[in-house]
Amino acid sequence: MTNFRTMNLHIDTRRIKGKRDAMIYGHFIEHFHRQIYGGIFDPGNPLSDAEGFRTDVIKALRRIKVPVLRWPGGCFVSAHHWKDAVGPRRVPGFDKAWRVEEPNTFGTDEYIAFCRKVGCEPYICTNAGSGGAEEMSDWVEYCNLPHEGPWAKQRIAGGHAEPYGVKYWSIGNENYLGGEIGAKSAAEWGRFVTESAKMMKRVDPRIELSAAALADLDWNINLLRNCGERLRWISLHGYWDGLWQDNTFAGYEASMVFTNTLEDQVARVRGLLAAMGLQKRIRIAFDEWNLRGWHHPRVDTGLEPEEYITPRDLNDDNRCYTMADAVFTACFLNMANRNCDIVGMANFAPVVNTRGCIYTHKDGIVLRPAYHVFDLYVNNLGETVLDTYTSDDPVLEVRDKAGNRAETGALDTIATLNAEGGIVIAAVNKDAANPREFRVVWPGGSIPSGYCIHTLTGTGTESCNDIDHTGAAPEPPRAAAYKPEDTIRLLPHSVNIIRFGADL
Ligand code: AHR
After folding, report:
1. pLDDT score, position 503
2. Which position among 30, 141, 174, 180 bears the catalytic label?
3. Right CATH number for 20-382 from 3.40.50.300, 3.40.190.10, 1.20.58.340, 3.20.20.80?
4. Is 226 a residue whose pLDDT tops 80?
5. What is the predicted pLDDT for the residue at 64?
6. Structural contact between residues 237 and 284, judged by C-beta atoms closer than 8 angstroms
7. Is the CB of 73 under 6 A from ligand 1?
């Protein structure tokens, strides 16, 4: 058996990184393929409630305590007019982003009702593509004004007397991308966001605004110089395995290489916010992230549905979502916790179907491996993130997607304090083949005499879950006696939560 270095995880409960915002465990859903229609909204299905929402999906989302759900896009929103999807008559529209008919039967009222059932905050992304400041601010009127003006009155006429109180709003989606409908230059964007933010805040000064951004200096300087004082968030997106055109997945080792760049965007935006003196007031909403980019080839060029619509079904192949996705997801959530002083929200993209952590079919749902990572993190880690450091970090030799040699850290750990003062560690072993060990170095004082470990490892790196198959679900939690000199052993390709007693 190869002798690997044992990593040291240095923990000091007096060194606090900060309190993580629960919204780093957020999610996103878009009007794309089967996320809404046939996903969360499935009228007529016996598994749906009277409003057409899938009750099995709601139950699964409540288990992972979804704190916030971003909607309706994504590219979709850049040509979507929210007024087409409210009121008694819903006329189907043509979705120019994804080139399909949009029934408009799932709109603002249905979305808010769904969020209430899940118990999550709504987070609405507005149309900064073909839309403008007035359409955005009218949407805030519809949602948040008690009764003033035509849009609040339309909400009331629809049977929703009380304002929805939507707190989180984003201006635009990826308007920096040439392919986005209503793409804008950095200079245009700064001015556009300012005028949109001005009108939206005039309707409801309480709302918290984000705006589409990326780790680009020119884009962000223009945005923040023009509108920094009106923003509370800056939006970032990240998909590491770009499968938009070619659905050839990065394998396990290549997916581990992608974990090397998880923090890059956050570090660059952190530096810019600090340089502009905004790091205390503006936080990062990483409001679309996933290892896997969504597959939607030839959106601009497809002539026949077989060319650009049918291939979207490939997103729903559950065999593709393996322990690579689970391990990557855990590493991203570790990164978000580590940066909890500036990352206040993160939204897994999407939550249901496509690359989501839940897959729906007419008779039920499949919980893909990434779902179990959210379950383990949300239901075990504490909200206080400790400022730990490691030594003797083991390096893992891997191959990237192009087959080139690469290295990555074999282990990825964070430590938190839970409400009872107990230490809860998340520890990821990225090694595909070998168990790895780490030792906790305590600051002195009383040492816990035992821990409980929850492990998600599957039966191999390619473990997946499907309608008739469960290959990756958490093992039953295991209690272990503990002495300070002990090491903690992590199975290959595993995500682990280690809960020490509160008797520190
Ligand atoms: O591939 C899906 C798209 O990815 C989302 O609609 C957009 O926001 C991001 O570019």
Report:
1. 42
2. 174
3. 3.20.20.80
4. yes
5. 98
6. no
7. yes
